[in-house]
Amino acid sequence: MKTTAKVAGYGNLQVVSPYDIQTLQELQLVKEATDHAKLYLTGIIPEEKKDSYIAMATSSDIIEVNEVEDGRVVRNLFTGLIENIGVRAVRGIYYIELEGISLTSQLDIKEKTRSFQDKNMTYTALLDLILKDYPGSDYLDYATNGAKLEGFTLQYKETDWAFIKRMASRFGAVLLPETSSKTPKFSLGVPDGKLGQLQDYHYGVARSLDRYTEATTGHGSELDETAFTHYTAESGQYFALGDKVVFQEKELTVAASTARFTEGGLLYTYTLCQEEGVQQNPIRNEQLTGVSIEGKIIEIRRDTVKVHLDIDKTQDKGKAWWFPYSSVYSTEGADGFHCMPQEGDAVQVYFATSQEDGAVAMSSVRKTGQDSPKMGNPSEKYWGTNFGKEMKLGGSDFVLTAKDTKEGKMFIKLDVEDGIEIHSDKAIMFSAEKDLEIETDTKFEIKAQEAIYLLCKESSIVLDGETDIQGTVLKVDGLIKSPVSVADLEPEPEPEDPAPPPPPPEEKKGFWDSLLDGVQLALDVVGMIPGVGEIADLANAGISLARGDYAGAALSLAACVPFAGWAATGTKFVKKGMNAFETGQKIVKAADKVIDTTKTAMNAIGAVVGKVYTSARNVIANGIDKVANAVKLMKQQMKSTVMAAKKGLQKKIASIKKNVKQGLANLRNKLPGPSKEFVTPEGIKVNFKEVKDQAHKIELPKTEVQQNYLKAMKEMEEEAAARAAKETEKPQKPQKPQKPKKHTAEKKSNLQSGNGPYSHLNDSKYVGPGKDFTAAQKRKIIEENMKQNGGVVKSDQSGQIATKPQKSKKGVTPDPNEWQIDHIIPRDKGGTNSFSNAQVLTRKENRDKSNKLPSDLDKPSKKTPPTKPKRRKK
Hints:
- The chain is of the alpha+beta class.
- It is 20% helix and 27% strand.
- α5 runs parallel beside α9 (624-643).
- Residues 1-10, 507-628, 671-682, 688-700, 737-751 and 851-874 have low confidence and may be disordered.
- This is HNH endonuclease.
């Protein structure tokens, strides 16, 4: 029900409301910047309506206050919603009390939480998006001037009015509600109002120093104190918020107004200040501090992520904001712990302050999903990726897993009870620039299904069904040394007509073996020929294999060290023809480092030399035709393998070859002197000579292998010439050598061990004569000595306190009191490495100690040394 009441006073006012107000008693209308307009009204109502008005009141009731002249409305002073209603009785008279609020209050009812992640969205587009939920609403923008958000913006537990007010504060602007409209309308910023003259009948002046301090200190405003000086003036003239008035010869702006109903009509009280003073300091949403909002990752880039927040129904992936992701530990440099989540993972966006621009994504959250056995034991920690890489930290084990599928497994497991386990369905390589030491107190096992290769320069041990041992010097020691007795040979008379000696049997290790060694070396080095991308052009590279000159090919191939082939691409050297056995040497990545590449190539060549000698028998049995066939087959295999590589790799090799070739030419031209020669780290002199178009190789001096090979060939030629000469000559009768006198070497003492202070310690099964004490034995002896001497080490001979041995340094004399562990019975006298044969001495005592034993009286006699039977010269 609506009732129109016209109240006449000294001024003409009209109140339109659902209630029959007979007499207007009081009226106050308050309008302020950034707040809703408020109406306070008191009037007299009929007695019979006192109860029904309360029952019929609703939240959508509208009240209007108009100014009329001659029966027509001149202006609307207020239109709004009835916010509160009350009825009271005073001496039998019933009064109704109403509180009204402007329609902009409809934007200030429901709190909302949502995000605006498009940094290119303008503030006008943001306001349009917000006001579309309020039919008929509108605004006038006097502040943003088409500006964009330029960052992530969040409305968190804020009404639309509070959120718009906070957005306006970014420009220092205020919101001015429109009180004459029947729909929500407002101005963002101060409009250009009308200009009027205000008489200064009654006024006051004040200055807001607290607002000035906040504006200039916290937010960097450049306003001075006069902007925060305001006047309070009373007048019967009507001015709207934002109007300009001339007061005391100053042009000021109406920032607030209060209208009161009096006997003479409406009296207005205005707050006037400079236009710069009608401003709003930046507002922050303090509720946002410490808040985490969950969401799902929709895109990842470097260390940032895009997140679809759970508070939003939809999120355009292209317009989403890039949040920095907070990993466990990261720095500004290259170090730190980089562990990014995956698309689809649930994360939390954390706000450390009341400002949105400090938000970071962090702490991936596991949502409800399938049960995982890894989650069953909280004491076990897992760190894994979607590619199968995983790190497990259990109560007793630590496991690094690279692959765990049906096709194969690859992991390293460290268990405090079971030890260390390395499992791989691929090759395992250990590489060290310096020493690689393996030490065990019990046993060390190496098992292989096909073969085991132990290689060191020109020495090797090969176990591949047959056992081959190769070395310049081969020394074999037995565990038990028995006495040797050599009897003197009786002299024999020379025969008168001895038969000619039989022709010498064909030696297995002669010309052919030397030749095969060289050819095998060639086969091993074929994979390292420069120009590996063009295997068909081997002949053009100066290689003589295709012409059948195998000896020359072996030497030239062994002298070739690549700089533009596999070495430049970082590929491993592979010895062809031997089950693709990898030498384990990684080629340098930087092809322009000439000396380092030379060192790597020479090491790779030396690593296969030992196997070259011992495996030659498996390549060719005999015959020059099989040599040629083996070389031909190897070339075909090499070509098919290389040509099967991807085109990208071949292009990369070609590009690197070109660059390295140019780099070598530049280096050669920059070298001082005419010799163009320098020395590699191994002491090999390298001479950069001018090369022709396709001979892209570096000639090195002949290696020891090549020199031995040439020597073997020369010996073969001399042997063949000597054999031919023998066939034409008549053999002479050999003289029978005189039988030497019998000589018996006296038996050596087989001393084993003493009866030292450590005889109570248990020996291992590897104890034997002539052996030194192992590192584990020495540690155990020192520990036992310290137990016996109260925590210090003392000499078992003199009881003197001994010091710990130090590493020897050039020019520094060792401490004579350093402890040393010595054999009681020396090793060369049959002493073992048993604990019972050990004693702790100082360095000086050990130096002064005589190694002769009282029982060492049975040395071999030097009177008659054993002699070999003499044979008559041919």
